[in-house]
């Protein structure tokens, strides 16, 4: 039986081929890491639930997109129905970092009029001696894009959980403020089963009267 959840967030991973998107997802969802990984063909699907706060369980529907140009027509169809995007680059691969703006621009154009929350991830932080992108430069790019930044390693399991928690929390907080809401025909956020359903502050239900008259 599926675990009950209050909301489902559809999250998409973006970035060049070989930056480690699949490794991040396998570490986060299955707790495993392998040095051998086959390139993603088209789109792969993963899922995991998080307890975002007491009594609120979020199901993350995670889509791993191929970074190769020949699969772009397939992967772009998934952009519009996603509420969150992890922009992943390889800290040891300068070109993958330089392509982040292109990924961000392409996705931003496809998701309109919906809202997508991004998080920038510098992956393979365990390979310190091979680093080609200084943290300060990555943080400047994140600031320019208006997103947060975190460095991760699927191999050493560094900050993997934190990255997904950060993005889920950011989406959830925007739901609390009313900036993101469920909509018919959009799969970015879906209401689930039971429990707490968020309403913007001005739509909070009035307290029940205790009058017995």
Explain how this protein is built.
This protein has six helices and seven strands, in the order E-H-E-E-H-E-H-H-E-H-E-H-E. The protein is an alpha/beta fold. The model is unreliable at 207-213 (pLDDT under 50). This is RAB42, member RAS oncogene family a.
Keywords summarizing the entry:
alpha/beta; about 210 residues; 7 strands; disordered C terminus; about 25% strand; single chain
SSE inventory with pairings:
Blueprint: E1 7-14, H1 21-30, E2 43-53, E3 56-65, H2 72-75, E4 84-90, H3 94-98, H4 100-111, E5 117-123, H5 135-145, E6 148-152, H6 160-176, E7 189-191
Parallel strand pairs: 1-3, 1-4, 4-5, 5-6
Antiparallel strand pairs: 1-7, 2-3
Brief digest:
The chain has 213 residues and is α/β, with parallel strands linked by helices.
